[in-house]
Specification:
The chain is mostly beta strands. 0% of the residues lie in helices and 40% in strands. The protein folds into two domains: 71 residues, no CATH class; 291 residues, Methylamine Dehydrogenase, Chain H (7 Propeller). The strands form ten sheets. A four-stranded antiparallel sheet has the order 5-6-7-8, with no helix packed on it. Strands 9-10-11-14 form a four-stranded antiparallel sheet, with no helix packed on it. A four-stranded antiparallel sheet has the order 15-16-17-18, with no helix packed on it. Strand 23 and strand 24 form a beta hairpin.
Amino acid sequence: MKLVIIIIAVAACTGAPDYKCQSNVQCVDGKGASGVCESNGYCSFADTACAGTERRYSAGAGDQANACVAAAATGCISDLVGGDQHFCAVRSDGTVWCWGANDAGQLGDGTTMDRAAPVQVKTPAGKKFVEVRATENSSCALATDDTVWCWGTNDTGQLGVASAGVPHADSSTPIQVTKTDSGATFLAKHLSAGGKHVCGVDGNGALYCWGENSDGQCGEQPPSAGGSADDVFVPTPVAGLAEGMVAVSVGDEHSAALKDDGSVWEFGGNANGQLGDGTTTDSWMPVQARITSVKTIAGGDEHICGSKNDGTIWCWGYGVALGLAGGMDQTTPQRTLTAESVWAGGSAFHACAVQGEALMCWGQNDKGQIGTGAIDPDNATLFTPVAALLATVERAAGATGDTCAVTVDGELWCWGANDRGQLAQGAIGEPMAVPQRVAFACP
């Protein structure tokens, strides 16, 4: 039997006494429009006459009644990523902050304690980070000097460090990724992570991967195809992708690289058509997806989406994650919607995109990660505006059962599962199917 949990909001922020809110779901005006519970505890609602934020306080907002919401100080989150049950963000001062599950040390704070609020990763001396990525239970960050640092579990080599063919032990603090067993430094310009593997593009446009390779997702011949490379312990070049790569995005069992000519090249598991070549045949050698003129790619667990130069979004692979009627797997790219940007997560079965002023999410919704106010165990979710997230979203990231997003005015919001502190609300709890503001300190 299908069980649907719906959060019902009642009219608020109108009348006296002044109305104080704690969650967005409490902010609904007399016409049924959803609003935002601002950091001062008052509700605001969409109003394009308010420059910058396009939000106006309600009549019940105390001394802010009917005033435009002022733009927040410049936001300090420059990058955001989700793993399985944890998130990490890069702050403008070059530090990385993480929260959620930490049983494998994936938060990088030197402990294995789950954290329900952001904690700072122990930054190596003299390093500042510009990019962060996450596998299921590990994290990696790219420093300003192009060095790569990883932390968390290393059960399949996803930390990218080995000695004499033996992978480094798990680490709850960052360790530097090396290019060979001998310890040569690996330098990169861009990273992606998902499942239990990581890929990076170096300064020459060559693609390297390391970690789990059971389906050929690191571009090496796996045992299932007659090879011997079950796991890859250090960054290893992917054959055929030695130049021209400008971006990489990986899922659980597959990897995708974007070339400077707008073509997409993929390798790894293909049971759901996630390689986009019209088949369901695994391939450890890169194959070209049937799409051109691509400018960005975003890989999910068993699917991938790409934005084209004409402003359209195309997705393929696991049907539940595509937002298309019928929920069928797609072995070739399918046009889904017109939008400016698209985001996913290597361990997530959902994706999000900005369409106009709305953040649209679709796919798996068993924990409320779509953010509509409903939890749908059957995951029959098509393109849906996220409830009460009115400010334009600058970036978003998905974890297995969660989504977090940063708005253009610097606010961080999260929604979905919270059993490991993924929502950064200070405590674990039940899933939240509408966005919750996160208290994230800026320098």
